[in-house]
Amino acid sequence: MSSKSKLCVLISGNGSNLQAIIDHIDDGKLNAEISLVISNKPNAYGLTRAENAGIRHLCLDHSQYEDRESYDQALADTLSQENPDCIVLAGFMRILTPEFVNKFSGKLLNIHPSLLPKYKGLNTHQRAIDNGDEEHGVSVHFVTPELDGGPVIIQSRVPIFEEDTAGELAERVQEQERRIYPLVLEWVCDGRLTMRDNKAILDDNPLPESGYASE
Fold it and tell me: CB-based contacts of 203: which residues, under 8 Å, 6+ apart?
């Protein structure tokens, strides 16, 4: 088997997607190693998940930096020392500066709980319910300087039922998140997925705007 890809994972909270990636690696489905987990919040449970898995982890507490630029510079310096093949944003609740994004262009992946370009930003589940949508979902995309605006790699859809709360809908979406994010990382680690000319390229073919058609 070819050498393992090196991943760095950025988190802010529970780390359920981090756990899905760890499990995928442990099951032999993902030819990668997580060299470092970074949280911007010291009480993030994802740090405990990393510790339990024997993965190096640290907190770069954003509240200890005077502005976004200085925080992102410290984050970029830490990541550059790792020289990862891919930087995985897994519930990392920070808007990244264009300078940071451009430094790691093509290596940054994010998962966002909506069917992009719908509902960029926060509170996506409640917004979908409030608008009377019949379906909602999740997107994995490359990160570009535009907030939640990079090329979509894959989406997964879930139905919205009449009595749904935002919490119930979130649970349904998160189940899909844990399925599709490891799949995308498989493509990255197998050398099948890249970003070129602001497009997601899988097996040398540009993906459509809504990403890979899984169904």
Answer: 192
CATH number of 5-206: 3.40.50.170
Give me the residue spans of the domains in the chain: 5-206
Check if 141 is active-site. no
Which residue in the list 24, 57, 62, 112 is annotated as catalytic? 112
Tell me the residue type at 187. Answer: W
Beta bridge partners of 158: 136
DSSP sequence for 30-55: S-EEEEEEEESSTT-HHHHHHHHTT-
Q: What is the pLDDT of residues 29-39, one digit of tens each?
A: 999 999 999 99
Using a cut of 0.85, tell me whether the model's pTM lies above it: yes
Dihedral of CA atoms 102, 106, 109, 115 in degrees, nearest 10, equals: 90
The residue behind tokens 């050498």 is: 3
